[in-house]
Design a protein that fits this description.
With 492 residues, the chain is an alpha/beta fold. It is built from 18 helices and 8 strands. Helices cover 49% and strands 6% of the residues. Strands 3-2-1-4-6-5 form a 6-stranded mixed β-sheet, with helices on both faces. It has a two-stranded antiparallel sheet with strand order 7-8. The termini are far apart. It binds iron/sulfur cluster (SF4). Iron/sulfur cluster (SF4) binds next to helix 6.
Length: 492
């Protein structure tokens, strides 16, 4: 809890109560300046809890009519792959918040945000085959965190023209954070409000930017939580964390990986190990039911995963880097294996979880439906194996009533595979063309059909991976020589 860089407390000069009075006054002045709604980013962690408590406390002192002239939206993004205990804690906190705000006639309303089904972690990873996130390919943060919250803020800005976003960012979090905040400070046109680099007409208010960790904890332990959380509940949640940073409201990609924090996603492969989840399990035997989650995360965390991925990019193109192929999405059998393991993990959790988590859902039915659609329609995997995996792992039929009637299915594909033998590319090519023909069978005008057939051929006309890579190398060499020739001509 202690912050080694910070020895002085914010409360030293005026004392605790007086300092809070000053901050409350600042919030009230800013709030009463106009009728623009506020948005507060809440993660359930200590920093955003302090910000919301400060705002709540300041507004509670205002006349009821004055404070209800506008709305304060509390937003919290659940990535759908949150640590289940943290996710439960945040949902409970948001419910309590809404009840308490209503009872106290406060203008505060909490909303939990989620990524859209088509952008969810599982649809990207299992459906499309995006590899587990890495520092060089961190595709998750914007889809899971930035897009849902930015969409909410955009909607508020569209409705009211402008908004103020209050967040719990602090300079003491890291040197990088301090530098970024100082840069934004220099761009301030109004006192205490920084421009938001990614959303126009949204100003950022960081009321605890100069607080140390100790200041934050002092405030939490000395102040009564207005929506009814026990003062030690948050401390309990943090108690055994190896890192006590929280994953804040993520606004842009400059935010460092939140996986190492208390509130990262349980699937995060940006960190070597999910130390906070491991600590949660090690320090409280009641959390042992979470163990299968760490095993699944480790399954995704393969350092050199080229053998699990297609040698072509998502588009089917062979792209070179340092003369070798840049590998693309996970292969079909890998995606199927991961899905099977995920559903088995879900079953294990349900069997061993405490009663309140018995219905836990690691992947939703809507996500499964979208994954099935991608496999079947976009990737032409006519085996349609998802309902079978679902039935085999859960014992339940997969109740998707979408009409995917096709004249070919698993038996025909097994036969085709047998005929093609080791030539997987030929199998893939024929399968895709059969499906394209089926998908376009009722089209009167087959606009673009030949392009699709050509693209299917271009993806698969090689003998094998080596042939494809050697072709790409020759092509690259040829293109470079043409470019050199063109340059020489221009110089002449
Ligand atoms: S915690 Fe990890 S997986 Fe989740 S959004 Fe952040 S970087 Fe991505």
């Amino acid at each position: 809890m202690s912050d080694s860089n910070q020895h002085e407390s914010l409360f030293d000069e005026l004392g605790f109560s007086e300092t809070i009075e000053v901050i409350h006054k600042e919030i009230q002045d800013l709030y009463l300046e106009n009728d623009l709604p506020w948005v507060v980013g809440y993660s359930g962690g200590k920093d955003s809890t302090v910000v919301l408590q400060l705002i709540w406390g300041a507004l509670a002192k205002l006349d009821e009519k004055k404070r209800n002239k506008k709305k304060v939206h509390v937003i919290s993004t659940d990535t759908l792959v949150e640590n289940p205990i943290v996710s439960n804690w945040v949902s409970r906190s948001l419910n309590m918040m809404n009840k308490a705000a209503k009872a106290a006639k406060m203008p505060i309303h909490a909303t939990q945000l989620h990524p859209k089904v088509e952008s969810s972690f599982w649809v990207q990873l299992l459906g499309k085959g995006y590899p587990a996130p890495r520092p060089m390919f961190r595709w998750c943060t914007e889809r899971l965190k930035i897009w849902p919250s930015n969409q909410f803020i955009y909607d508020v800005v569209n409705q009211y023209g402008e908004t103020i976003l209050a967040i719990g960012t602090r300079k003491a979090e890291s040197a990088l954070r301090a530098r970024t905040m100082e840069k934004h400070e220099r761009l301030r046109t109004r006192a205490r409000l920084s421009p938001n680099g990614s959303i126009p007409n949204c100003s950022i208010y960081t009321p605890i930017e100069d607080w140390s960790n100790d200041d934050v904890w002092l405030f939490i332990t000395r102040t009564e939580n207005p929506w009814g959380l026990g003062s030690t509940e948050l401390l309990e949640l943090y108690k055994d964390a190896t890192e006590d940073r929280e994953c804040p409201l993520v606004l842009d990609q400059s935010t460092p990986s939140c996986g190492a924090s208390r509130f990262g996603c349980w699937v995060c492969t940006l960190v070597a190990r999910d130390k906070s989840m491991e600590a949660m399990i090690a320090n409280d035997p009641r959390n042992e039911w979470l163990l299968p989650l760490t095993a699944f995360r480790d399954l995704l965390d393969v350092k050199n995963d080229d053998h699990l991925r297609d040698f072509r990019r998502m588009s089917g193109r062979v792209q070179l880097h340092k003369n070798g192929p840049i590998h693309g999405p996970y292969l079909q059998h890998v995606r199927e294996r991961f899905l099977r393991r995920l559903l088995e993990t879900q079953q294990k959790l349900r069997e061993n979880a405490p009663p309140e988590y018995r219905e836990i859902e690691l992947i939703s039915f809507e996500e499964l439906k979208e994954i099935r659609r991608i496999w079947l329609v976009d990737k032409h995997e006519l085996e349609d194996i998802l309902p079978r995996i679902y039935k085999e792992t859960t014992g339940e039929p997969f109740a998707d009533d979408t009409d995917y009637y096709h004249c070919f299915g698993q038996p025909e594909m097994d036969l085709l595979k047998e005929v093609c033998g080791d030539d997987f590319l030929r199998f893939e090519c024929i399968r895709e063309m059969l499906d394209l023909e089926w998908q376009n069978r009722n089209q009167v005008r087959r606009v673009g059909f030949l392009d699709k057939i050509e693209s299917a051929l271009q993806k698969t006309f090689y003998e094998d991976e080596n042939d494809a890579v050697s072709f790409a190398r020759k092509k690259k060499k040829y293109q470079a020589s043409v470019a050199r020739e063109a340059k020489r001509e221009t110089v002449k």
